[in-house]
From TrEMBL:
It comes from Halanaeroarchaeum sulfurireducens. Residues 92-112 are annotated as: Disordered. Keywords: Chaperone. It holds the Pfam family Nitrate_red_del. The keyword Chaperone applies. Signal peptide: none annotated. It comes from the Archaea. InterPro entries: DMSO/NO3_reduct_chaperone (IPR020945), TorD-like_sf (IPR036411), TorD/DmsD_chaperones (IPR050289). This is Cytoplasmic chaperone TorD family protein. The keyword Chaperone applies. PANTHER family: CHAPERONE PROTEIN YCDY, DIMETHYL SULFOXIDE REDUCTASE CHAPERONE-RELATED.
Length: 225
């Protein structure tokens, strides 16, 4: 945690960043364009010492229409540049019981929809009764997972007597579990960088998101060391 920042302020700041990333990876290019105009990514990378090249994440040369086309080509419409924005597509091993008739999946191969990562993150959602609004109903969609971390950070999740998440320490432990689950962002960021080699906006954004999660993971682990 940066010096002179209270714990409550730090959690609110974390929630804001995760909510921003969640909205962007859910396709809200207006939010992305506004953040680029405000040079938000440069400011965040500098303030948090996040190791990511954010030079391209400014509004210069980019309007909402071009960003919308770029988003759709990468994350919405299967094609030569498509990168699935959900964890199950980036596992190195296929799920044990996974079965699919999709033309994009061959039996015994990784690259799935609703595979083990979806089941694992859904179990974490269930622990606090969370249901993501973002991510097109895909539980391990990056937008849904970022939305979950934002909700945990700002205390928006509901803790009831029947939950096993009762205290602030329980919530922090749950956040660490989610951040460990998000290690799939390494493969995702690499894939986006290769597919977005021309414009580079979403490649840089995925790299920033991956670096931010790694930084955040180290901060949470250090706070309990």
């Amino acid at each position: 945690m940066p010096q002179s920042v209270s714990s409550a302020e730090f959690e609110r700041a974390r929630a804001t960043v995760y909510d921003l990333l969640s909205a962007i990876f859910d396709g809200d290019v207006a939010v992305l364009h506004a953040a680029m105009e405000d040079e938000a990514f440069d400011r965040l990378a500098t303030t948090l010492s996040v190791d990511a090249d954010v030079a391209v994440l400014t509004a210069a040369g980019h309007d909402e229409e071009s960003l919308h086309i770029g988003y759709d080509n990468l994350f919405a419409v299967p094609g030569p540049h498509y990168v699935p924005p959900f964890a199950s597509a980036h596992v190195t091993d296929p799920s044990e019981d996974f079965d699919s008739d999709s033309t994009y999946h061959e039996s015994g191969d990784a690259g799935e929809l609703y595979g083990d990562p979806a089941r694992e993150i859904s179990a974490l959602y269930d622990r606090v009764g969370f249901r993501p609004d973002r991510g097109d109903g895909i539980p391990d969609h990056v937008a849904a997972e970022f939305e979950f971390v934002a909700a945990l950070a700002d205390g928006a999740v509901i803790r009831s007597d029947g939950d096993d998440v009762q205290t602030d320490d329980d919530l922090m432990a749950l956040q660490r579990e989610v951040l460990e689950h998000l290690e799939w962002l390494d493969a995702f960021a690499d894939a986006v960088a290769k597919a977005d080699s021309n414009e580079g906006v979403f490649g840089a954004l995925a790299a920033f998101a991956n670096a931010f999660v790694a930084w955040d993971r180290s901060q949470l682990n250090a706070s309990t060391a």
